[in-house]
Amino acid sequence: EECLRNNEDAAKNPKYEDFANSILNNVLEKIGVFSGVSFEDGITGIALAIDHLIKERYIKGNTTSFFESIDDKLFQYAYFRNIDPIKKESFNANNLLWICLYFCQRIQSKELSNENEIIIKRLLIECVNLLENRIRDDYTLLREPTGFSPFSYFLPNFILFLSKLYEIELYTYKIDVLC
Asked: Considering the entire predicted model, what is its pTM?
């Protein structure tokens, strides 16, 4: 409880708010430099971290344009690298999972236009099917990694993804079949 109270006090302190905003501005200036999409060292992790800072009220302001540019980049990565049969490139299950988790957060935020929400939901459905097929074809995805990192351990992240889909009431009948 004391920790939560300290965080609430910090969120109300203008010094911490200024510090958080300065970090955000620094990240926004350099985001074009980040070419990766991974959670650990790419824009997915940055976007989820910023989303967390906003939810905890460390950052205020209009972040719509920021998230729209992230949405576009991550959608393109997820679709063109994994789903589009013509342009399909290398497949990285963990990157795709974290992108899907990011999009679940975006749907829960209720900040997407109706059109974008529909498109993203269709992408998430495609991703569930793709990941299911990959798991059936390659059981090594379910193995525990040799070096533990909560961000690269596929199975718990996949279960987290399925639970987020259930929360947003998307593709629940498929989740029931998988589980």
From this structure: 0.80
